[in-house]
Write a structure and sequence with these properties.
Layout lengths: L7 H28 L16 H10 L2 H10 L32 H119 L8 H105 L10 E8 L5 E7 L3 H13 L9 H7 L1 E7 L2
Antiparallel strand pairs: 1-2, 1-3
Length: 409
């Protein structure tokens, strides 16, 4: 039965998608609230001309700043002022000139700030949407791989089930064939029994007819010769009794033979059925035993091969470990025998050494830019011989050749 429960990564993708949707709705709402009020059309700038005599009471009671605020209240400005020069108002030299009207930029600043905030929120929402899209694509790919693995497992299971069904069908087909053969044998036996019964009945009827005809002839002859054969009546009666007794015995014998034959036929049929069933059971058991043996042999071979591979791998790793330890011991022995040349600090030399099975040096090749280093390393390699070789043949063969680098301190 299939499991319709959504995988965890799909549930996570749904949760992420829901979160992104909520954020997008919030951002759109903020944008709508920040820009829902349409800007008013620009109104013309009104210039108010003030007479000097009208400013005198104000100058006496308020400061210059208060006067500017009172004048600004009478000026309505919704757009930036034109760049045209303001009209010159003639005033007396002694009268202070009121400050020029200032532009109300609060609404423009608020609009600019709202627009900038909306743009930042839109950029953040876009980044979040892109990240969520990448995450959804990754989850989708992961889901596709999981579905592919599940499909492969389902295909393998379907193939195994099909093979099992085919084997079961083969067994059932053989059982059906055996049953059909048994039924055919039973029908043939029944037909043979019916034919024998019909023949016995026909023989009995013919014998009865002949006996009746003979008796009728005898009666007629006896009646005709009644007078002549009165004396022979007793003999005839005795003979008739003997015939009747013989007839009864023959009938009893025929009936007994028929019963015996019927019983023999039934026994033969039962034996044939038992033999057929026993043979079918033996065939099925032999097949099952053969399949079990084949599976056991295959498993034993696979287990033996796996065990041999594991042992070989362990042996190889052990050989490498022993050879590596021996090479490290060789290097330490060479370093102890190495007499570093004077004035060669920092110089390096690489030695390629080949040993015999007994640990003697067969060849040594030293590469170095400093002749003293080269000669000292080669002398140390030969002085440290013979080298203790591993007892294992494979490890000894592995340790016969090694390369070491020596650096003068």
């Amino acid at each position: 039965m299939k499991d319709f429960k959504k995988p965890p990564f799909q549930q996570k993708a749904i949760a992420i998608g829901f979160t992104v949707g909520v954020h997008l709705v919030a951002v759109v709402g903020l944008l709508y609230l920040g820009m829902s009020k349409a800007p008013e059309p620009p109104k013309p700038i009104k210039t108010v001309l003030i007479k000097p005599e009208d400013l005198k009471p104000l100058l006496e009671t308020e400061s210059a700043e208060t006067t500017h605020e009172n004048v600004a209240e009478q000026i309505t400005q919704t757009a930036e002022p034109a760049l045209e020069p303001a009209p010159v108002i003639p005033t007396p030299a002694a009268t202070p000139t009121p400050p020029a009207p200032q532009v109300d930029t609060q609404k423009a600043a608020q609009a600019a700030e709202a627009q900038a905030r909306a743009e930042r929120q839109a950029a953040e929402a876009k980044q979040i949407a892109e990240r969520q899209k990448l995450e959804a694509e990754r989850l989708k790919a992961q889901q596709a791989r999981a579905e592919k693995r599940a499909q492969q497992e389902a295909d393998a299971k379907a193939q195994a089930d099909a093979k099992a069904r085919a084997e079961a069908d083969t067994v059932r087909r053989k059982e059906a064939e055996a049953l059909k053969k048994a039924e055919a044998a039973e029908r043939r036996q029944l037909e043979a029994n019916a034919a024998a019964k019909r023949k016995a009945e026909a023989d009995a009827k013919a014998k009865a007819d002949a006996e009746a005809k003979r008796k009728a002839a005898a009666d007629a002859k006896a009646k005709a010769d009644a007078e002549a054969k009165r004396k022979a009546d007793a003999d005839a009666k005795a003979k008739a009794d003997a015939d009747a007794k013989r007839k009864a015995a023959a009938d009893a014998k025929a009936k007994a033979d028929a019963d015996a034959k019927r019983k023999a036929d039934a026994d033969a049929k039962a034996k044939a059925d038992a033999d057929a069933k026993r043979k079918a059971d033996a065939d099925a058991k032999a097949k099952a035993d053969a399949e079990a043996k084949a599976r056991a042999d295959a498993e034993a071979k696979a287990s033996a091969a796996k065990k041999a591979a594991e042992e070989a791998a362990q042996k190889k790793a052990e050989v490498r470990r022993i050879a590596s330890t021996a090479k490290r011991d060789f290097e330490n022995k060479i370093r102890r025998a190495w007499d570093t040349p004077a004035g060669s600090s920092g110089q390096r030399a690489t030695a390629r050494v080949t040993l015999s099975d007994s640990g003697a040096v067969q060849s040594v090749v030293v590469n170095s830019s400093d002749p003293d280093m080269k000669a000292s390393v080669e002398a140390a390699v030969r002085a440290a011989a013979p080298y203790p070789m591993p007892s294992d043949p494979e490890a000894r063969r592995e340790a016969r050749s090694f390369t070491s680098t020596f650096t003068a301190q």
